[in-house]
Fold this sequence. Notes:
By secondary structure, the protein is α/β, with parallel strands linked by helices. It contains eleven helices and eight strands. Helices cover about 45% and strands about 20% of the residues. α1 links the parallel β3 and β4. The longest helix has 17 residues. It starts with a strand and ends in a 12-residue tail after the last helix.
Amino acid sequence: MPRVKVNDININYDQQGSGEPLILLPFLTADNACYAFQVAEYAKHFTCISVDLRGTGESDKPAGVYSTELFADDVSAFMQAIGIEQTHVMGLSLGGAIGLWLAAKYPEKVKSLSVHSGWTKTDLFIKTVIEGWQVMAPAFGSVTELVIRGIFPWCFTPDLYANKPDYIESLSAFVRSRPSQPIEAFIQHSNAVIAHNVESHVSKITAPTQITFGRLDMITSTRFAAPMTDNIRNTELIVFENASHAPIYEVVDEFNQKTLAFLQRHSGSSASISMHN
């Protein structure tokens, strides 16, 4: 996979498909492969660029304090490094939080924004859950095992576990097949989640924005809908009734259909997008 030097670090990414660029921003613990079920469809219509954030996958993992704003700065510099002037941006959870920062801070660079299971400002509930994961990570001795045994139950409904145990096992195998995030990097990333606060900046977002939630999500429930829909000028809200925090895995077909429809509605010649190598 290609790597590019950005803000004094090497960023690894994967590129598939053709069409207008669509940058996919991963969620906590994940690398560029986390949207495999979406890229399979999106890449038929868009150039899908899936990145490893600093501290994940095959990208560099420097010491220091990370923040969702820093990740957005990295993505902006990454766009410049590979020659993208403007792009569609999509992310779930942490990826959605980064997308909000990117679209607020660099509005001219974002043609459309898709925020799935996102939030504007970490509250006590999210902080409490994340702090629990921070204790569990060294106890498991592996971020991979933390994901499967500690984080998955927050991402999927009990019904999915009960009715599709083989599917849960296949998702576990997928996670185990990917590079495991070092525990120290996970602490840096999860501290960025705890500190996340873009609430006072989202009114600067000019891109049309799709906001989605899983009805059964506790971490980023629909309590975070109004802070986005009330302050971002052009939004559409979708709630997936049978999903929790990860509809990208729970209701794949419905998720892909509704999100791809949004992306296609906002693609075309209304803004100039150029890519060069």
